[in-house]
């Protein structure tokens, strides 16, 4: 139970984040920053300069590596990250509520996961509990920060405070993002997790995102359900599942149901395409690793351009509405490119006599940059499917839908060209995937501007 006690002790330290909400009311921003950071700095000083390896507090907070070093570097790093963020929350535009939500989500989720691992070690169950408890405790932290900062005691929000749906969205974002980062990083990287999550929440707070309550509720329910289905079917690893859930939540809340439909079509059909005739692909040396379950790097590489488009769409709606449709096209083009490339690789690789896209010479199956006409047809079908869904939800005409298909074709072709020329050297497979979807987004968005 030492891990549970240590997680609970870190959760107690996390409560210090509420000091920033109280200090933010100081008339002098520099004084407010010092007051907010001081408790965390005292904890850091104790951890790095005072606590010795023989004391009970050392045993309470120490990780295995701390015993080897003789210092509480884990606690010290966490406290220093908290001090920096607390100073920003009290003395700059980082909302104290967002800071408290990010810290509470991390420490609360860690306690929940530690309890699960102490009773029944199971990666998916521990991660799910991390996200659930982190979400609930993040909400508690946000409400507590509102209470401290605005004197709210009855959930009656003052106009200048964070609206309730936005607070729920921030807590969900913090919990899933923290769970994802904890999955791909080490436990000692908690300071990096804290800072990363707080910066994401700061971005959304700065965009003054309007969160429709109904869309938020649907988004939370549907993304969690589909995340479990993706993991149960083996189309995504735990990290890949969390990445998909986070991106789908952003799509449905920041964009809308149509944006979500496009993204979930790619996730669903792309995952199933990887499973199609998997043993045969393994024999040919072209199968995805991990039995076709896509990891966070693969999901993010295929979705990062689309994510940037939906965030840019949200920002442009408030600052430059005339550009918002361009980013909608960019999103559709990126997703069309991702599915076109996936279909081209997963189906085209099953046919013999592929040719290198740059010289049209026959090469062995699985060669980077190799294409087959069957794969090209499958890729175009994938892009056309995304274009059809986009036409339905975004009310696009034939020409506009054709631009989405063209974006998908451009992305698929760029992927093949980069595979034949750069992949395996300075650019890896995930980098090629990102550049391909980015090319599809840029082509589709730029051409839509000319319509």
Automatic annotation (TrEMBL):
Membrane topology listed for this record: Multi-pass membrane protein
Domain of life of the source: Archaea
Gene Ontology CC: one annotated term: membrane
Keywords: Membrane, Transmembrane, Transmembrane helix
Principal localisation: membrane
Annotated transmembrane regions: 32-51, 72-91, 97-116, 128-152, 164-185, 192-210, 216-233, 245-269, 377-394, 400-420, 432-450
Subcellular location, record wording: Membrane
Pfam families xref list: DUF92 (PF01940)
Annotated family: Belongs to the TMEM19 family.
Name this polypeptide is given: DUF92 domain-containing protein
Organism of this sequence: Halosegnis marinus
